Amino acid sequence: MARKKIALIGGGQIGGVLAQLCALRELGDVVMFDIVEGLPQGKMLDIAEVGPVDGFDVNLKGTNSYEDIEGADVVIVTAGLPRKPGMSRDDLIEVNSKIMTQVAEGIKKYAPKSFVIVISNPLDAMVTLCQKVTGFPYSRVMGQAGVLDSSRFASFIAWELGVSVKDVVAVTLGGHGDDMVPLVRYTSVCGIPVMELLERKYNDKAKAKEVMEAMVKRTRGAGGEVVALLKTGSAFYSPASSAIAMAESILKDQKRVLPTCCFLQGEFGVNGYYVGVPAVLGENGVEKIIEFALDAEEQAMMDKSVAAVKGLVDSMKF
Ligand code: APR
């Protein structure tokens, strides 16, 4: 059986971690494309040379030419500028739209059958643009945001309750911006609703609510928290790991249910926009969007988040 092929478009901070994770997990052969000469070649050589130590056996190649992504099964896009302190993701739209248009044309030409996972920001707008330029079916173009946003929310809950991060299940919906919707009601620790545990911890409902509100706020601003600390760029380990979970579910047909930026056609009251929702990812890409009931407060938060996505996407000229 032929090995799977993964193309990484963008060989910066996230691209490097993606390549290393693909290699360590032997997900397939990897090609990294970047416009900077020598950068993808150097990074891939650096990773490849430690194969004997790490014990992975995959081919790794860096390139400045799109031909090399030919036949890729999965393409992960990180091309584009990251934020600097004080910037919102939306501030990147102009510059990253130009980059995304070029990238999508390259993918359309050389990897026409691929599944595409976009990480570049502003995420919801960049996925929309990528799908429009490639013309690929919606099931084959998706964005990574929700896996990470949910992971950040789960981390804060685990730290607060002093339990293993492995036992927290958390989900966020909506756009990848400050209005994202961490869903407290559907968040649990070993199946136990998180608010019940917080209320028991503090023996005080108001205090538990206050603590949860702080965690929701931190989740919404978690990307910016990292940017403010790093000063020179944005988070890169965590977005890479999150996208790899999505790629792995597709490549191995795992059918994992992962929060994914998907094109909605009526689900959650949204029509014609890419928004983060739980979806089944398998050999056919986005195989199913998982819909469930939101209460009035959750729907209002979702509507607000979707309105922000619409504002941004509608400002783009296609
Ligand atoms: N084609 C391919 N690669 C490009 C192009 C292009 N037209 N333009 C820029 N790049 C490359 C840069 O050369 C750089 O190596 O994209 C890479 C981006 O890497 P970093 O600047 O290190 O950014 P990174 O932290 O990896 O984030 C990439 O993901 O999370 C988002 O907000 C983040 O939009 C940013 C993207």
From TrEMBL:
NAD(+) binds at residues 10-15, 34, 96, 119-121. The active site is at residue 176. CDD domains: LDH-like_MDH. Residues 148-310 form the Lactate/malate dehydrogenase C-terminal domain. Pfam families: Ldh_1_C (PF02866), Ldh_1_N (PF00056). InterPro entries: L-lactate/malate_DH, Lactate/malate_DH_C, Lactate/malate_DH_N, Lactate_DH/Glyco_Ohase_4_C, Malate_DH_type3, NAD(P)-bd_dom_sf. It comes from the Bacteria. Transmembrane segments: none annotated. It catalyses: (S)-malate + NAD(+) = oxaloacetate + NADH + H(+). Keywords: NAD, Oxidoreductase, Tricarboxylic acid cycle. Substrate binds at residues 83, 89, 121, 152. NCBIfam families: MalateDH_bact, PRK06223.1. This is Malate dehydrogenase. It comes from Geotalea uraniireducens. The lineage of its organism: Bacteria, Pseudomonadati, Thermodesulfobacteriota, Desulfuromonadia, Geobacterales. The gene is mdh.
